[in-house]
UniProtKB/TrEMBL annotation:
The lineage of its organism: Bacteria, Bacillati, Actinomycetota, Actinomycetes, Kitasatosporales. Gene3D superfamilies: Single-stranded right-handed beta-helix, Pectin lyase-like. It comes from Streptomyces omiyaensis. Residues 255-397 form the Right handed beta helix domain. This is Right-handed parallel beta-helix repeat-containing protein. Pfam families: Beta_helix (PF13229).
Length: 571
């Protein structure tokens, strides 16, 4: 299928989640035979303990007199500052639900955590493990959540839901040192109604979400309205999250499944030092949408930085990439990330809706190695879409090799280092290293005029045949393409190069994270030194991919020479 048609039917993606059933409270009468624990009449907040060697007739207020079952603890109506502590290393059947009127605040949160040694395990039967509905001021720490076969279809490890009318977000959510596996979604945070806001001040750190069906970690909200843009969730920090082996649903052909981290309807968000790998392998073959390692849609002011996304797959003919800025994303940045060995693009910037809301985004100082393994109609970096505008792509390093590319050998098609498709304007591509072993360096759908898409200061290197596709024409030299296209010039002078950057990654593998050193140029003296992206009116930021402070003289690519410190010369 042509790349331009890959996501033609995509609207804002919504992760469908079936939450645990709410506890039904009968008023005006007691339910015969059901014991409901009573809160102490005075004082508080309180800490409650649960252990398999406890007794539900205990007061539950000390490790020496714990309750026995999670179901018993679930009957408590928690108040600000309360803690529910489950014995570490023990396994608890059942689930926990916090409803409106429970929970706390940033100053006095309700905390659910383990005590003793190790993580407590919550193992629900066919439902979600922890559901927080229409309330916040909640912290969940040090737990392992394990679903069964039925929960894999309709449960969530941790589900935060807001269905309250109005624009007020519910504040303070913390999920730390939690593992969630065997659910439809590992962790999901959503606004369930068109009139609902979501959550704010959200921190998800040191979390592992794996072997779930539809996603590892997902945020979602109401459908996006470009005329009145609103975002369900505000002020997110997602740090050191591992999302892997979330397989996708082979039965689901109407929506994407199998992503690692998916952010929808968020603003002011950061995803930092997280990893998504080996997701999406069982996503539906007939789906019009596929999974991604880490991606964002219907959102604004999102930063993806210092993350790795590798070996992500797709069961269909679409997606399966490392990172993506999808429909209706604005004022967002992908920087200092590594994508490698994904089925689809390493870095995708895409708009499939004519809203004009996809604008002012940046892709900089990233590395892509051997992406588009299954789908060569993508590439290392791919940008296209309807009314997409004002995109900067600079100081990235992309290496594309033919080794292991079965689709290329079968069809004679090689993925390019950079693919540009129609529908965009105001796109600037500067100071990147684009390297292949004979595949196309750039594949552009049209012969774009510099007024629409401009390329300047890039290094186009091939260890095999040099080839570049520009609209209907194919070029075998940088000089020939420059003369025909009016690209790679500044003030009437030529820019760009075809010099060998001496990247080990053209011959040696890039391993999970540590192998990024193979994408560092060893022939920096052969690359032209100028002011990098600065030469073209772009502020490149403070540091390169490795966190080295940028000097005055920059070369192409994500890794920059170390700045010489005054007084060190000649020592």
């Amino acid at each position: 299928m042509p790349v331009g048609a890959v996501k033609r039917n995509r609207t804002s993606r919504t992760v469908a989640v079936v939450s645990a059933a709410a506890l039904v409270l009968l008023t005006g009468c007691e339910v015969p035979g059901v014991y409901r624990p009573a809160r102490p009449a005075s004082g508080g907040p309180f800490t409650f303990y649960v252990s398999p060697d406890g007794d539900d007739e205990n007061d539950g207020m000390s490790p020496g007199k714990p309750w026995r079952t999670l179901g018993h603890a679930d009957g408590v109506r928690f108040q600000p500052g309360d803690r529910l502590r489950l014995r570490g290393g023990a396994r608890f059947r059942g689930s926990l639900t916090l409803e409106q009127g429970e929970a706390g605040s940033a100053a006095e949160p309700v905390v659910v955590e383990s005590y003793g040694t190790g993580r407590a395990v919550i193992a629900p039967r066919g439902e979600s493990a922890i559901t927080v509905r229409n309330t916040a001021g909640v912290e969940i720490r040090g737990l392992s959540l394990v679903g069964d076969r039925k929960a894999l279809r309709q449960g969530v490890g941790v589900a935060f839901r807001n269905s309250l009318p109005g624009a007020r977000r519910l504040g303070h959510v913390r999920i730390t040192n939690v593992q969630a596996s065997g659910f439809q979604n590992g962790i999901s945070v959503g606004a369930d109604r068109k009139t609902s806001a979501g959550f704010s001040d959200v921190r998800i750190t040191d979390v592992s979400v794996h072997h779930n069906l539809e996603s590892g970690l997902a945020f979602y909200g109401p459908a996006f309205d470009a005329d009145r843009p609103a975002y369900a969730h505000d002020r997110l920090r997602i740090e050191r999250v591992k999302a892997y082996a979330n397989s996708g649903d082979p039965r689901s052909t109407e929506r994407n499944t199998g992503s690692g981290i998916a952010l929808g309807s968020v603003q002011n968000a950061r995803v930092v030092r997280s990893v998504a790998h080996d997701n999406g392998a069982k996503s539906a073959a007939g789906a019009d949408e596929g999974p991604e390692g880490v991606w964002v849609y219907d959102s604004t002011r999102v930063v993806l930085e210092h993350n790795a996304s590798y070996r992500n797959r797709t069961g269909s003919h679409v997606d399966g990439g490392g990172f993506g800025l999808d429909n209706n994303v604005s004022d967002s940045v992908m920087q200092y990330n590594l994508a490698q060995n994904n089925d689809g693009p390493g870095f995708l910037v895409y708009s499939g809706q004519p809203t004009g809301a996809h604008r002012n985004n940046v892709v900089r100082f990233n590395m892509s190695w051997d992406d588009a393994r299954k789908l060569p109609e993508y590439g290392g970096i791919v940008a296209y879409g309807t009314r997409l505008s004002d995109l900067d792509i600079y100081h990235n390093t992309v290496v594309m090799r033919s080794e292991g590319l079965a689709s290329a050998r079968a069809a004679g098609t090689r993925p390019p280092a950079l693919r540009l498709r129609d529908g965009m304007r105001g796109v600037r591509v500067h100071s990147n290293i684009l390297a292949t072993d004979g595949g196309p360096l750039v594949a552009a759908q049209s012969a774009y005029a510099p007024s629409k898409i401009v390329l300047q200061g890039n290094d186009y290197y091939s260890s095999g045949r040099w080839t570049l596709a520009w609209g209907d024409e194919r070029y075998a030299t940088l000089t020939g393409w420059r003369a025909a296209s009016r690209q790679e010039t500044l003030g009437g002078q030529p820019t760009g190069s075809h010099d060998d950057p001496c990247l080990r990654g053209l011959a040696m593998p890039v391993t999970d994270g540590a192998g990024a050193a193979n994408l560092v140029p060893r022939c920096e003296d052969t690359l032209p030194f100028d002011r990098g992206a600065r030469a073209f009116g772009i502020d490149p930021g403070p540091v390169d991919y490795f966190g080295n402070r940028l000097g005055n003289a920059l070369t192409a690519g994500a890794a920059q020479p170390l700045e010489e410190v005054a007084g060190d010369a000649g020592n």
